[in-house]
Predict the structure.
Amino acid sequence: MDFLMRASGAHTGEWYISEVNTFPGFTPISLFPALITASGMSFADLSLHLVRTALAQRQAGR
């Protein structure tokens, strides 16, 4: 699930469901890559993290 938080106005701090998905988008207009970039992580670092996490879960039998 993707969530958005209102940053200003009468409902500041309220959370909203943006969309329900099983695989985040990786297009230039997708929120997921924008959030990763805003956090300071590069796309290469993200890709490596995702692969390492998947391999670790596979080895753990999950």
Observations:
- The chain has two helices and two strands.
- Residues 24-62 form one domain.
- The helical segments are 31-39, 43-59.
- The two ends are 21 Å apart (CA to CA).
